[in-house]
Amino acid sequence: MTARIGVITFPGSLDDRDAQRAIRLAGAEPVALWHGSHDLDGVDALVLPGGFSYGDYLRAGAIAALAPIMTEVKDAAAKGMPILGICNGFQMLVEAHLLPGGLIRNAHQQFIRRDQRLRVENADTAWTSDFEAGQEIVIPLKNADGGYIADTETLARLEGEGQVAFRYLGVNPNGSANDIAGIVNERGNVVGLMPHPEHAVEPGFGPQTPAAMRSGVDGLGFFTSAVKAVVSAAV
């Protein structure tokens, strides 16, 4: 079967087309979805892309979390559909209470853009199975409201139950608690992270590597992992 992965476009989304291309490169069919719809068009997985939905008014992702299609997103998450929130999409997931905690202004109060080293902490999710626990990867990062926060009890639970999916290495770029770059829900199907894997899927357009300029493709593993999860679930 060919997996069909939806990418939801909100007013202000910037990276929806990049996510669609990443899905195509992973061997799946990207399906464009609209924030005002109540139809997921029968997709097998979902990506909430990066950008500045609704201009980031109120709080980043706060208005998008109330968009009509988010009713269907919540239902799909509850049924186990693989869902990935990237940057602004991560912000939407926490605002919609599909993931715990919150995202606030970077500690240095500035927008940051860098190729960021990450450590994969949980390789047992629908979006990380093509990695190994402890593996180091490099993924582009670009955000202004990327500081992950949660109360002490929530942080302890995330750490104790293996719900930290990715951790910043080398430098904590935005002041995130416990160097957290991404988390996963208890079921393992909903993942959110601030870095942008869709910008590291094609040689010549990714992060720098010792092998060649712009040759990093560590982000492709997110999308191939989802394809395998979808195909496995269909068997």
Automatic annotation (TrEMBL):
Q: Which SUPFAM superfamilies match?
A: Class I glutamine amidotransferase-like (SSF52317)
Kindly list the places in or outside the cell where this protein is found, as annotated in its UniProt entry.
Cytoplasm
CDD domains per record: GATase1_FGAR_AT
Named in its record, the pathway it takes part in is: Purine metabolism; IMP biosynthesis via de novo pathway; 5-amino-1-(5-phospho-D-ribosyl)imidazole from N(2)-formyl-N(1)-(5-phospho-D-ribosyl)glycinamide: step 1/2
**Database matches in SMART domains:** GATase_5
Q: Which UniProt keywords apply?
A: ATP-binding, Cytoplasm, Glutamine amidotransferase, Hydrolase, Ligase, Nucleotide-binding, Purine biosynthesis
Catalytic activity of the protein: N(2)-formyl-N(1)-(5-phospho-beta-D-ribosyl)glycinamide + L-glutamine + ATP + H2O = 2-formamido-N(1)-(5-O-phospho-beta-D-ribosyl)acetamidine + L-glutamate + ADP + phosphate + H(+); L-glutamine + H2O = L-glutamate + NH4(+)
Stated EC number for the protein is: 6.3.5.3, 3.5.1.2
What quaternary arrangement does the UniProt entry report? Part of the FGAM synthase complex composed of 1 PurL, 1 PurQ and 2 PurS subunits.
* Descriptive protein name: Phosphoribosylformylglycinamidine synthase subunit PurQ
Organism of origin is: Microbacterium stercoris
